[in-house]
């Protein structure tokens, strides 16, 4: 069995490297006349080679190979559809619910179960804080080294889709937020809505405000919610959707939330290596790219302001960049303190890395937050996340 997986894995790696070579070759032959002189994907790779080889050192060649290979997806189960057959089907294909706690369809778990607590030989000396993962968020993945693809989701008899495909690592920021019964939450940069949907899967939120400054992306979010959430669960008093500049959120609304997700625009590293369309490394977008850390800091400060005292904020990106990750968090914490007199504490996410180390590769020794590193055997991420708690 293990040998078969290994052989299959080697074939997949070879196929991927051939695919990548072919991709570049095809682009050259087919589009020779119209191909940009400096493809943004090449500019992105040059930039990453220069910065990430220093930042990640010996880890960079392996992360680089993974990011240039086919990404792995997860299937986020939609608890608002009939999922019984679906789960049996995933299990028969050898898929694993990586969250480790799975509910029966429609069931809401009330307390933490022991299955949420995996102990392995890598257990740290001090037991990490126990997470509450009994939140009905269930996401299936193919096992390590298996890059089979999920089929597109099909609607159930009520027209509701059974699962949503996304980078499985992007469920982690939502799990880290630890949504509790009756909470209110703000998703400041929500579109196209993968994490909004994961937040709703908890079935614990009293109110969710999903915002995104982009009108066209908010339209996508609306469409997604229509396909996944029955009407009665997305009434205005439960789910509010706006298209506002998140930086101005605190000026516009006298609202505070138990939980705030700040999933900011970033260099979307994987996309930037693979797609010319909408690529932030295009020369015409240089200034926009350089301004990202400032925009990210402003959005995080706005998110901190929107949290109630004792409330928690989760900052996340899909970039490896220290400048967009740790530095932004440190800047925002300082600005919140110095300009607004708000004190936040950075929360330890050791429990999360410990719990999910069988599924994801985490970067070692970050100054603040945690980072999922892409790896050929588990090709998820990059996803950076850092959790903050407003204490004053
Ligand atoms: C990484 S994406 C969010 C992905 C989303 N959370 C999900 O899981 O599907 C970042 C989003 O930030 C939005 N954005 C950019 N600038 C913004 C701003 N000033 N205020 C609010 N949203 C903004 C973009 O339109 C984009 O949809």
TrEMBL record:
Reaction equations catalysed = a cytidine in mRNA + S-adenosyl-L-methionine = a 5-methylcytidine in mRNA + S-adenosyl-L-homocysteine + H(+); a cytidine in rRNA + S-adenosyl-L-methionine = a 5-methylcytidine in rRNA + S-adenosyl-L-homocysteine + H(+)
Q: Name one GO cellular component term.
A: mitochondrial large ribosomal subunit
Pinpoint the SAM-dependent MTase RsmB/NOP-type domain residues: 84-391
Which GO molecular-function terms appear in the entry?
A: RNA binding; RNA methyltransferase activity
Top-level lineage group:
Eukaryota
Ranges of Polar residues composition bias in the record: 106-123
Location of the active site: 318 (nucleophile)
Kindly give the InterPro entries that the UniProt entry links to this protein: MeTrfase_RsmB-F_NOP2_cat (IPR049560), MeTrfase_RsmB-F_NOP2_dom (IPR001678), RCMT (IPR023267), SAM-dependent_MTases_sf (IPR029063)
Question: Where does this polypeptide localize?
Answer: Mitochondrion
Q: Which GO terms describe its biological process?
A: rRNA methylation
Annotated region described as Disordered, given as residue ranges: 106-131
Q: What keywords appear on the UniProt entry?
A: Methyltransferase, Mitochondrion, RNA-binding, rRNA processing, S-adenosyl-L-methionine, Transferase, Transit peptide
- PANTHER family, sorted: 5-METHYLCYTOSINE RRNA METHYLTRANSFERASE NSUN4 (PTHR22808:SF3), NCL1 YEAST -RELATED NOL1/NOP2/FMU SUN DOMAIN-CONTAINING (PTHR22808)
Name of the protein described by the UniProt record: 5-cytosine rRNA methyltransferase NSUN4
Origin species, per record, is Chanos chanos
Name of the gene encoding the protein in the UniProt record = nsun4
């Amino acid at each position: 069995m293990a040998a078969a997986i290994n052989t299959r894995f080697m074939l997949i790696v070879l196929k991927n490297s051939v695919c990548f070579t072919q991709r570049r070759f095809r682009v050259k032959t087919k589009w020779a006349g119209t191909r940009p002189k400096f493809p943004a994907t090449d500019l992105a790779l040059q930039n990453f080679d220069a910065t990430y080889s220093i930042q990640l050192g010996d880890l960079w060649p392996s992360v680089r190979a993974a990011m240039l290979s086919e990404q792995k997806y997860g299937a986020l189960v939609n608890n608002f559809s009939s999922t019984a057959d679906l789960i049996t089907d995933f299990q028969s294909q050898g898929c694993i619910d990586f969250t480790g706690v799975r509910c029966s369809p429609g069931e809401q778990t009330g307390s933490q179960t022991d299955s949420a607590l995996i102990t392995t030989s890598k257990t740290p000396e001090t037991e990490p804080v126990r997470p509450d993962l009994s939140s009905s968020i269930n996401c299936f993945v193919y096992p390590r080294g298996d890059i089979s693809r999920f089929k597109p989701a099909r609607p159930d008899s009520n027209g509701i889709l059974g699962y949503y495909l996304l980078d499985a690592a992007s469920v982690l920021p939502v799990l880290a937020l630890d949504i509790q019964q009756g909470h209110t939450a703000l998703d400041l940069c929500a579109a196209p809505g993968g994490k909004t949907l994961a937040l709703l899967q908890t079935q614990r939120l009293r109110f969710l405000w999903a915002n995104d400054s982009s009108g066209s992306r908010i339209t996508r979010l609306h469409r997604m919610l229509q396909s996944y959430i029955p009407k009665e669960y997305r009434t205005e008093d439960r789910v509010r959707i706006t298209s506002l500049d998140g930086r101005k959120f605190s000026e516009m609304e006298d609202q505070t939330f138990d939980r705030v997700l700040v999933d900011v625009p970033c260099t979307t590293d994987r996309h930037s290596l693979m797609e010319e369309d909408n690529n932030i490394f295009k020369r015409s977008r240089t200034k926009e790219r350089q301004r990202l850390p400032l925009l990210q800091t402003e959005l995080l400060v706005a998110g901190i302001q929107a949290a109630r005292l004792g409330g928690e904020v989760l900052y996340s990106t899909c970039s490896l960049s220290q400048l967009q990750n740790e530095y932004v968090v440190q800047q925002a914490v300082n600005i919140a303190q110095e300009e607004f007199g708000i004190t936040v504490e950075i929360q330890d996410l050791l429990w999360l890395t410990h719990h999910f180390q069988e599924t994801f590769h985490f970067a070692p020794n970050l100054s603040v937050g945690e980072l999922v590193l892409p790896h050929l055997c588990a090709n998820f991420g990059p996803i950076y996340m850092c959790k903050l708690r407003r204490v004053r």
